[in-house]
């Protein structure tokens, strides 16, 4: 079941497979240059969703959370995807020291876990996905913050590509 507002979509994923399937759907409809902020507690399934997103983009290898490496790049036929996990970031300025500004200026897809850790240094999100634990599964709230994000949201709501 999904509930939609003008710039938001809420849905429930009964299990990890459903969450990964939603990530696949999202990967199919997102433009090649977009920024997604993934919010949720530890274990909420942010990387599970990213795994589905990357599968839709043609990646068939392992997908691990970049908790210790901060970033995992994926050079795919459909374009470059950077998966960032900022959980361990001590200060948002560290993003500058790591040279990530160049990533933010490119035409890649950015999937950013724990974006609040990089507040003030990250590009504006096209979509913000908030994932909440529930006794059975996860609730997802997807909010659009740009015109490309709204287009993705409309596509998801209409069920077409």
From the coordinates shown, what is the CATH architecture?
3-Layer(aba) Sandwich
Number of helices: 5
- Give Rg in angstroms: 15 Å
Number of domains: 1
Taking the alpha carbons of the first and last residues, their distance comes to 19 Å
Identify low-pLDDT runs: none
User: Which oligomeric form is depicted?
Assistant: single chain
| Fraction in beta strands | 25-35%
Name the strands of the widest sheet in spatial order: 1-2-8-7-3-6-5-4
Helix/sheet category: alpha/beta
Please bin the fraction of helical residues.
Answer: 25-40%
The CATH superfamily title:
P-loop containing nucleotide triphosphate hydrolases
Write down the CATH topology.
Rossmann fold
Strand segment count: 8
Task: Write down the overall geometry.
Answer: globular
Mean pLDDT level? 88
The major sheet is characterized as: 8 strands, mixed
**The top level CATH class name:** Alpha Beta
What is the ordering of alpha helices and beta strands?
Answer: EEHEHEEHHEEEH
